[in-house]
Protein 1
Amino acid sequence: MKKLDKLIVKSYVGPLVLTFFIAVFVLLMQFIWKYVDDIAGKGLSVGIIAELMLDASATFVPMAMPIAVLFASIMTMGNLGEHYELVAIKSGGVPLWRAMMPMGVIVVVMTVVAFLFADYVMPSAVLKYRATLYDITRKKPALNIRPGEYYSEIDGFVIRVNQKDPDGKTLHDITIYDHRGSSSQPDIVVARKGTMQTTPDERYLLFTLYDGCSYSENDANANAESKPFTRIYFEKNELTFDLSGFAFDKSDESIFQGGYQMMNTRQLDSNIVRLKDQRSESLASQKQNIRNIMPSYIVTGGEKKSCADLCDSLPTREYNRVYTDALSKAERCLSDVGIHSQVFQSQTEYINRHYIEWHRKWTLSLACIVLFLVGAPFGSIVRKGGLGMPLVASVVFFVLYYVVGMIAEKAVREGALGSVGMWVSTFVMLPIGLFLTYKAVQR
């Protein structure tokens, strides 16, 4: 039995590891495609991009594990069946469930690892990649002044050059508009030729201009006919531009903490209790406000009288005044109730998102076992190995699991289903897995 276990484990681990990394890579490519416009053209270093990719990849691990288990299970059992090794195993008196046991042990270990990863590692990875992504999107594009175009990324300046030599430093026919002054008209610097270079620390851009002229209007408050106008010719002029806005500055990660995706199950539990208490206090406060605006009775002469009885005893003029006042208060209450209803719905949805994140840590982890119960017996039934059939079958099963899960998650988020709705996909796939297992064992 030890040799059989080693054979099955060896056949299973290879496709499992390969599929896991392929799944992470595919999910990472989807992430890059989503944010490619924010990343491209900003002159980011390889280290920063690698850090973002590594942190983002860590968030895909809990989803990649079930995909890997499903594909590897179908592929392994299909290969064994296609080469009649399952027939030899059964003829030797070893039942199918016993042959599946080595893979099952690996899957159980992966389930535990997936949960621990989702509960402890993933919140930190989400925090880091969200902070890095925020810094990247906030960063200006890399400095790139093209010939014939107006470049306005440097704060307070617009630069245009007609020609740029291949060395990337020598410029011809340069026009610089300076909008930093108080005048409605910018100061203008024109030069026939010039060079540009950055300081070693890349904090400043140095322009050395030759054979040019600068124009400026000195008094912004003077009328159009009396504005003083200054024109200065120069043979050489040096301008310095601050490039601090182009630098990549790391934000303090603490400002991103507090999101439900950055919490473990214990933190989610405590946060759910706190949010529910806040919602209850808000609801109680709103009810009390309505009671204060529209009381059901009034105390007069030491006794309680209903508002209806009191109004009936009033003169017509006084009754009309009270009626108008009551109508105004009722409209005010109706408006307050509408506003509070929206607030209550928003609070409830935010609490539901905490529930979704809490249950997702469990459902994605246990999906390894559920999809193993689907994949392994399915592979032994169809007896087709290789890449073709296992790939198609695993895509079909996982898409079914994922689509049902997404529909249920939306229902939970909107309050149409309770938090147990996060387990709908598990409840759908588990009977399929048990049925396939039963059929495979009976063959």
Protein 2
Amino acid sequence: MAAAGEPFLLTGISSGHSADCECVFSSQFRAWLSVLINKHLFRYKYDYRNEWLRLINYLAEPANVDEVNQRAFFAVASVTKAPSGAIWLLKQGFYEPVYRANLPNFVNLQEEPVGSPFCRAFIESDWVFIPDSNQDHAHSQHNEVLPHWTKNIPDLWLIFPLIVAEELIGFIALTKPTTDESLTWEDLDLLKTIGRQIASYLKRHHQEEKLAEHKQFDTYNKLVAFIVHDLNNLIAQQALLVRNAEKHKDNPAFVDDVIGTISHSVTRMSNLLKKLKRDETESITLVSIDEVMSQALNECMQGHHKITTDIQSTSRIVIGDPVRLVMTISHFIKNAQEATEENGKVHVTLRIFEDQVLIVIEDNGSGMDWDFIHNRLFKPFETTKSGKGMGIGAYLSKEYISELGGSLNVVSEPGEGTTITLSLPLLQE
């Protein structure tokens, strides 16, 4: 029996029985046997430890959104020595070319449908396409499904998949290196492994990009919800004027009140629309507590005359958006008014302490139970006012108080009223 290092199998196959072997063994089996022999009898082509450390170090370097695809491609090129190529990634039902490196301008890279036979070959067998392989070679057996656009890429060498778990997120095409371009089982195994690592890298960055977009949309949606909520209040004021116009249109005091209310509404709506055009940081200013409370109480006095106050006058300042701060305070006052009968009580207290302002809004209205306060009061799009709102006001108000570094406490019992305590940090004198 031959020793492990002796080419026993090679000589056995290449002896006088070669003609019979040609008949018995298929080309695929001979290719498989060749790989088996090379794997067990010859030394490895790559130092895998060095190759893997180089790849990981390359991908671990910081990269912004525009550099991610570039870094992924050149991580592959550093191992394969491919001079040019391109990356395709999954986007809305198609694999679209997202990066190209050193390809001539005339090369027209095209998108590939998700369900094409070409893409299915990647998923079903983790296949690496070698377009220029001989027709009787084992790696040419799926070349008939290569898309027509692959013929537009000069010196196309191979195309390998980018797979995460069982998901094909894309693929990479490489052109022939200037050095030895022959491929062995070792090259193909390494490419598949690198492909999975690159796929994980690209998918992670794609998810981070989506998360950043969702955060931006979340901020914008909160702003729009806030604007819609405040517009509803302004519309309610205008509707009240229209209802009373026929009855009081000959009263000069009523006319003056109409002019003042409309002027106030126009100013508020202009400020709200500006918020959609301005950077969020531009609306953060020094806000006078006295001015904010005065505006909030004036808004709530229109059409309602059941508010009593105990306001400590002050020159102290908070840092915030004056429009949102007025909306937040007036929201809780208006909620107290709506929960209280005409002969009920709504009392607003303001006290200044060393480093914070405390606003307490008390009413003797219908009140709320513990479950409603903790599970529904601050839940977005949850409302008890049928047809009167989006159920977003309490949620937005609490969120904004938290943004300012303040706190909100609600104490209530059904039938016994509610006390809301709002605390905001003051600018240090």
Protein 3
Amino acid sequence: MSAGVLNEKFGLGSSLRFTEDTSGLMVAEIENPRASAKITLQGAHLLMWRPRTSSIPVVWLSEDAQSGPGKSPHSGAPVCWPWFGAHESNPDLPSHGYARTAPWEVIESGNEPDGATRIVLRLTENDTFRTQWPHGATLELTVIVGDSLKLALTTTNNGGEDFVIGEAFHTYFQVGDIAQARVTGLEGVTYADKVQNYARGVQQDAITFSGETDRVYLDTEDECVIEDPSLRRRIHIAKSGSRSTVVWTPGQEKGDRLGDLGKEGWRRMLCVESANALENRVTVSAGQSHTLAVEYRAEPL
């Protein structure tokens, strides 16, 4: 669907318009009295979000982000689905599943009473996807852009048998300096440390960062907070339908190797991902639905 057709059917004047970027991807651009955001229809990938109360984005977009057909940049809030991380039996399949690079369609848009903007996107199974994941499912993402950012990912099982999914919002938050940032809300939670070959540990205090960190915190539904003294703000991460929280920063060596984080971009980002991973994967019964939802908001520190 062309930008012109999308604007005719779903555009909301200055608050929501569709454009085509230089790589040929369709982008939804949101500018309302509460916030601004960008979303690519490929992958239903929210690229950035900045509430009007902040001069700096909360959801981070790298200055060197590389978008294009079939490519998901290390920025924004990629949708990981129907598995998280590497596929458990076929290493040739894409990491974090196919949803983050698949074309999604817009099915709804509107203005909320408080001035926020709503857009709903849908991904439906097809023959190509069934070669990677042989189940009938529909995936919908509702995005509400306002003073807070709300994301809701709903999986509906259209088949006659139960299936199991792994999923996450792999969200990159902007911080001033990763060495000063810390995450609270996961004290006392058991984690699997991917840097240490999934060794298990228990988080004792707030999480701080001195190098690569990649942990899956298990059996937790609690809200997390990123405390960022460098930018003098807190980012609250509330969730539902999620039993895992993933905390990831690549550190310098891996960050430089990724290639699209920008010069020392790894210092200015931190992923806190609301997920269902490892033993917290979700069984979706035949004919039923499951929703993973998050709400992000920022406040002065």
Protein 4
Amino acid sequence: MQEVENFIKRHQLLSAAQTVVIGVSGGPDSLALLHFLWRRSSYYKIKIVAASFDHRLRGDESASEVAFVKSFCDERDIIFESDSADVARFQKEHSLSLQTAARICRYNFFEKVMTEHHAEALALAHHGDDQVETMLMRMTRGSEGFSAAGIPVKRPFATGKIIRPFLGITKDQIEHYCKVENLFPVYDSSNESDKYVRNRFRKKILPFLKQENPNVHERFQYLSETISEDEAYILKLAEIELEKVLIRQTEGKIELSVSAFNKMPIPLQKRGITLILNYLYKINPSSLSSVHKENFLSLLGSEHPSGMLHFPSGLVVSRTYDRCLLSFEHIVVKNEEESYDFSLELPGYVELPNGRITAEITDCEPALQRGKDVFVFSMKEVDLPLRVRTRKPGDRMAIAGVGSRKLKDIFIDAKVPQEERNVWPVVVDANGKIIWLPELKHITRHQINPSELWVILRFHKKSP
């Protein structure tokens, strides 16, 4: 077992551990791990706790395995913890696959034991053959990123981390250890059934690979660690670049610049999508796949200026010109509740869904009042009172040198997102004539005359 000790040392699996919980089913892998760490507990200066969980899926067989592990621990004065759960019932209540339901129940138990014993590590007996099978299965399904790396050597969990000291050795080596140490593990009959995908990979694919290279598990483990290291580095780069792309980021909503995103290298774009989805979903739904990410890239790379995608769990991806919004909120194209029509007193102000318009009167020289958010005009050239409203079907505006134009066309030319057009302020005079579209267009102003009274309108737009 020198290989295991070297693996533990190289990955510093026990350097910070004082108490280690060991997941034990009674099979050869977990029994060998329990025995190995028990024999080496004084060397590693650790206290060990055996934890055994009954999924109640195989009746008396699984219950007897827990009893076997307890007896094994009692003989060696090892602390033993056990529990059980009706996994089949849990599966139906939460509409999960049987394997997912079993995993959730089992890991909930492990977390409880770690917390009770203030453990720094949970040791699990996944080995090199498991790694090969897992990576092949995930590649076949089209996994990418960290998922393609297979089983991690260690990862954060509960009060510490999960560690896997056996990833550097094979199933045959573990079986040999059990014989040499006179261990008599129990065997799970379900491991022989071809109805499970993993068993088919184990029985049909793995033997062929080992024929080609008996140490294939070492190559897969090296590949796994390389993928994990590369992925961590690329994700860090993507995180830095993504900061330059985001327009706003709130709970359940992200908006980004399409042009800035498309300037990122493709590998960073793909990781950027991963980071965005991880942030929005917290826990990605099982129905989310690489196809969704490919569709996202296609939407942002399309020459068409607008489009919409529907992702699992109600996530809507909406592109309008240079902006892309990902949100769980339903996007309403037109809603009467969004419309408004306010009187604008002089002087005075009106509060709007997307900001505020203020009005003041001055007899001072207003020529320096410039900007898209400011409109200055003489009181003689506009019929008062003024009103501020939302757009209406057929709205047109007179523009100097151009003639009359539809508001719809003005919005399109200015690339105003569809959802913003519905609340965009339209300032009209007493006759309903449109005199100003803040930040976009205004009617032609007369020559400045210092002897006249002037109106200064300002639009204070809300930050996104």
